[in-house]
Amino acid sequence: MRRQLPLSWSVVAILALGCGGVSGPPAPHIIRGGGVADGKISGNLNVYVTDEETRNVISSASVRVGASSDPDACVLLTDSTGLAKFEPMGCPSLTGPVTVTVSATGYGPVTWIGVNGANLTIPIRATNPPPVDSAHVRGTISGWSSLPQPAANHQTLAVINYSQTDTLGDRANDIAQGTRTVTIATVPVTIPANVCVINVAITDCNWQLTTRTGAQAVYALIADQYNNMTPDDDSDDTFTVTGWAIKTGLSFGKDEDASGVTLEMIADADAQTFTATFASLPSGMDYMGAFPAMELGDDGRIPLVSPVLDATHTTTRVPKPTGMLAGIRYSLIAQAQDAQNQPRPSSLAWLHDVNIASTVAVSSWLAPPSSILVNGGTYSFNPAAGATLHGGEIQDATGNRLWSITLFDGSASFTLPGLSPDPLPSGMLQFQASSLSIPGIDLGNFKLDDAKDKIVGIAQDNVPFTR
Fold this sequence. Notes:
Strand order of the largest sheet: 4-3-6-7-29-28-31-33-24-23-20-21
Distance between the termini: 53 Å
Helix content: under 10%
Radius of gyration: 26 Å
Number of strands: 33
Structural class: mainly beta
Shape: elongated
Strand content: over 45%
């Protein structure tokens, strides 16, 4: 649909036709989710600031345009619409690329270095975000009571969960579950609320789930648990996935209490073998794990995380894209890292739209930045070959983000502007440098949501430093 210009701009456009085709600056507009648009900066720059999670605009955020050492940096506060509008009168000689730093009370600052777009929307993350919106759902699995009684020292379990959003690391994908009570021979026993169980003492599938809001699927991973003849020691138990159950097309609102959700088991005939192969791990990384994921479109993503794939275990079973799952796609997500309990350095490979009828190959890994150094307020690293762009985070000792930096211009060394109040505490901190591979992205014109869907590699490493 053609967007009408405001009357004043329509007049300017008409007049411009008789004056050599000169046009006015791009009108301000929000890029939902964040991004860059409308050509190179030439005198005018519009910056919207939004909450990374809620996507609401943030008023009274400080927007600074200029390198950290620039004594004439331009600074504005966003208005009630979240906009800071830089014009030639107040910010002369404004041409791209530029460094933009955004900060607001209660948020970690964000710096974009070498960005060049007349319209920017920059999301920032709250330092103490509110609880994730959630709903409560209750239901069962069709045919659960008809499943066979497991053998001695075994029990059949179903772990019910909800499909994830498309954003890796989204807090909504990791909502804690509660417990419920079942009665075994008149004795009340506490079990996880989102679990169904069949054993010699009980058959129960009245699950309860605390889920995220919005469109989603609810699913169950069904497994056989063997206690290894040590019923009082769970550490040596083994779990073998035997099937799944699912219900798609669901949607829940904040604080909704829904009941009667029945999951349908996927027949064994509607599953097939999934096989993957993996290239040798990057230098300094000795552990990896991988899993296929069902991509459900608007309903989100279901990670099939058990059993975990690795260089030795390369096959699993997955539901076919048929019946209730017709039209779904598959991806493969693989993570290499230093050790199972040492997450850095790391490299994530993400293969989209894979063909599950053929062997899926992770043929290479993106390397993380190397020679990461913090010296006298300067942060530097050696870029990773093949990366689309690099970024960094200043984190506290436990890994919480304090300041986010994205490098659009290929630079690998930077300093940060002084802000008041200072967002970086004294003491032990760490600098995490990242490389990203995003084929096909135009760094001068993109939406963050689209870029996230195109990521095929993320690699990271960090160094501690004292401030």
